[in-house]
Amino acid sequence: MFSRLRSRFLLLIACILVLPLGAQEAKRAKYVFLLIGDGMGVNQRYLAEQMLRYTSGDPKRQLVMNQLPVQGLTTTYSANSVITDSAAAGTALACGVKTNNGKIGVLPDGTAAVSIAEQAKQAGMRVGIITSVSIDHATPAVFYAHEGGRNSYYEIAASLPKSGFDFFGGGKSLGDQPNYRRNRPSVVDLATAKGYRLIDSLAGLQAATPGTPVWAYSPVVDGAAAIPYEIDKTEGIIPLADFATQGIRLLDNPNGFFVMIEGGRIDWACHVNDPMTAAIETQAFDRVVEIACAFQRQHPDDTLIVVTADHETGGMSFGSTFTGYAFHPEPLAAQTVSYEKLVGYASRYRKENTPYFDVSTELRQLLGLEVLNHWENELLRNALEMTKVAPADRHYDWAQLERYGKNEPLAVACLKIVSSRAGLGWGTFAHTGTPVQTSAIGVGAERFADLYDNTELCNRMRELMGLPKP
Ligand SMILES: [Zn+2]
């Protein structure tokens, strides 16, 4: 009797000891989303949210990414600079290693690093890479290519079919353009030979069935093979959100998937200090976060979503000399065209030698500015003079270089007026070294709640996916 009681007691103790271990056994992240806003610093997110509140009339409205339960901060420095470029930052996020600026999926000495996407594919998961810029641009490239220089677009694009990844979507290939390809075989032909189905319409994408690898791109792209800015409402594009929806549908399978989706043009807008274009691109990227979250709600026990940025661009700040402590969303909401469109107008003014009065009248209409004050008129007049000089013949003094960078002076001047009226400041036309905000939800999301490096972000995702650190 006593021994039976004792054995029951021991069994109970054993259960108490073992059960919590069993209950704590880490769940594997089977459906994994890595969502990267290129150049999307804390203030880019904050501006997109402020503008969402203003345009929706709901003062409490939040971006979906800002509502995720876990928020952390990520450092972005590269191996050779506090200020990273997208190649080094992407390599850190994709491969978990530091490299020098400009390098794609390789260590500083050129040795290839293994990406989390390549490991996921090897482990039997499906893999997708989606971006609003060209598919061979630095951020998407680091997941499937290994090149010493980010501008080797053809070589990068030629690695795409070799990856065997299941879905590529978004912009076209820059490397396949004649100036990069030269006399080498078309990347489209290389992909077809490897069994990829090439799709360039939304209907075609919607009709695609899982199983065959797909490379889908927007039928309408700009000169850099990227999907045009949302603010410009270009006809005939496939928006990033549609690539996300269709990509997820094609990737979904019982062995799980890893998908990287990049909002690539937030960075491009911030490189020219274009406030509302950046805000709208960030809002478009947030719709992708929303789509991922809808999937997560259906698969709450197996899904991990991590939203981050590779770096901040532009040194955007809230508060300007002219507005003091005020922020005015109205001049931002009135902006209806991107920097890129303004460059088109500037070229025409140069070609037609348009007088200042006509220029300022047209630009005021485009930007929703009723009257220009003395300083704004001076700025536009000075910029127009520079714009009328052919780009190759321009000589900048220090002040002009600080004001316009090497961008189109008139277009930058317009956006400077909008930013300054709104109460936004900009520190640079390049990247900054400030840490970025990372948000997460799902399996193991709590691992992303502190301050950590971008390499660590990759390695924590690896652990949660059950992948080794190579
Ligand atoms: Zn950039």
Brief descriptors of the model:
single chain; 470 residues; alpha/beta; Alkaline Phosphatase, subunit A; 2 domains; 13% strand; globular; binds zinc ion
Give the CATH superfamily of the largest domain.
Answer: Alkaline Phosphatase, subunit A
Counting copies of identical and different chains, the oligomeric state is single chain
Q: State the helicity in percent bands.
A: 40-55%
The number of helical elements comes to 20
Rounded to an integer, what's the Rg over CA atoms?
24 Å
Measured distance between first and last alpha carbons: 56 Å
Query: What is the CATH third-level topology name of the largest domain?
Result: Alkaline Phosphatase, subunit A
How many DSSP E strands?
Answer: 14
- How many domains? The number is 2
Structural class: alpha/beta
| Mean pLDDT across all amino acids | 94
Bound molecules: zinc ion
Order of the strands making up the biggest sheet: 5-6-4-3-7-1-8-13-2-14
Specify the CATH class of the largest domain: Alpha Beta
Unreliable parts: 14-24
Q: What is the second-level CATH architecture of the largest domain?
A: 3-Layer(aba) Sandwich
Largest sheet: 10 strands, mixed
